[in-house]
Amino acid sequence: RDVFGTLAALIPSAGGILSNELRTHTEHVIVRLRDPYFRVMLTQLASKDWFEVPEEELLRLRGRLAIAFQFLEDKALSSYLRRMTDQACTRGDIGGLIIGGLTPTGMNIVQGYVDRTGDVQTAAILGAHASPAKFVDARAEWWLETYRSLLDGFKLFHHRVAFGVERGQILQDAVQNGDLAPFEWAPRQILIRCSYCSKPKNPVLDGVHRGRPTACPHCSCAPPRCSDCLVTLSIVPDGAREAELSHSHTAHQNTIDEAIIICQTCQHSGHASHILDWFFGEDGARSHDMCPVADCDCH
């Protein structure tokens, strides 16, 4: 009843000056109210100004921002946005990202959120979309590594792999859009060495290769051939093909089929799809127990 009585008294006075008694009574009513919308209405009617309304913390941030954008002057709006951003950083209010976005300032808000809640999963997901696709932030890399370790600790290896694949797609899209320079994301864990000179056969990333692209860049000797199809086994960078596969649903299967398998006993090798077909058969009916190379009795 106090609220409606106060509103009834304030609305006729909206165009005039409030008496001291009415102003004092309104302030007392506002303090006791818990409904943010009633508080906002009474505050605006009592002050005759919108400047205090966006400061109402019981109102959702998006609603306060809508009021600020609608009624505040440019100078007051800029000051208000800076103040809200600083407040979000201090309090760790992740809702402040609606102001800061995925920017270095937004990462400050996320850091405050992590310090307050310990929610490294949310921070890692946000960081994966920001760094290094938009800018480089060491904190984002730390959140990502911590989240990976967390998934490993819970033995959620499939979830970690899925997370890595999704982040790889984000980076790939950034490279294709020109937002990020091409780079080798994952360090190499396996090297193919030439069987003649024993030097690593690293693919040429800049596209400049002297001589045959399938030959060893050091001694120019040809690599071994597939034990089944006799086609030269080599990994030749093909930008056009990789760009085509990046938008294909069969990219994963294509990569597996053309992978190189090397026997650790006889050192014979071949394409993964051909070796699997040789030993297991296309339909499981035709299979072999011995190496496809003639005179090799390796099982």
Automatic annotation (TrEMBL):
Gene Ontology CC annotations of this record: cytoplasm
InterPro entries: MIOS/Sea4 (IPR037593), Zn_ribbon_mio (IPR031488)
Domain of life, source organism: Eukaryota
Pfam families: zinc_ribbon_16
Domain GATOR2 complex protein MIO zinc-ribbon like: 210-299
One GO BP: positive regulation of TORC1 signaling
Name of this protein: GATOR2 complex protein MIO zinc-ribbon like domain-containing protein
Organism: Rhizopogon vesiculosus
